[in-house]
Design a protein that fits this description.
The protein has helices at 2-16, 18-33, 41-60, 68-82, 84-87, 96-109, 111-126. The chain is mainly α and 137 residues long. The chain has one domain (2-126). It comes from Acidovorax delafieldii 2AN.
Length: 137
């Protein structure tokens, strides 16, 4: 029952955030195919979604991911949202207000996944992996 509920929560979050996910993947693909502005922002965005997916799968399986996964997810997701204006050459030179607007827009379009990510980071950083019994001799 718990696994089914978790699958539904993850599916619903991804469904409600699908437009934001699609737009971030388009941005990531655009920056990888034809880089303009700061190179690597598209890869940061792709990595953030990969870390989110890894944390979601581990949460569904009720097994905490390694400690570096949520920490890397925080770094890549935040940097991807904040540095997004640097990828847009029409915004050069971009200011801190442009970065904050992009952060807010990206956060709103993917709000269900952002909320799930906050919960997943807490889950993975506070849970201890289950210890296995020592092998019998």
């Amino acid at each position: 029952m718990q696994t089914t509920r978790r699958i539904l929560v993850v599916a619903l979050c991804y469904l409600l955030s699908s437009y934001g996910i699609l737009m971030s993947l388009v941005l990531a693909g655009k920056s990888v195919i034809a880089p303009s502005g700061v190179a690597g922002i598209g890869l940061l965005i792709l990595l953030a979604w990969v870390f989110h997916l890894v944390m979601s799968v581990h949460w569904i399986a009720d097994s905490p991911a390694q400690r570096w996964v949520p920490l890397a997810g925080i770094c890549t997701g935040t940097l991807g949202l904040v540095l997004w204006p640097a990828e847009q050459t029409t915004l050069w030179p971009f200011s801190i207000t442009d970065a904050l607007r992009a952060f807010a827009l990206g956060g709103v379009m993917t709000l269900p996944c952002v909320a799930l990510a906050i919960y997943l980071v807490r889950f993975h950083l506070t849970r201890r992996p289950a210890r296995t019994a020592p092998p019998c001799r």
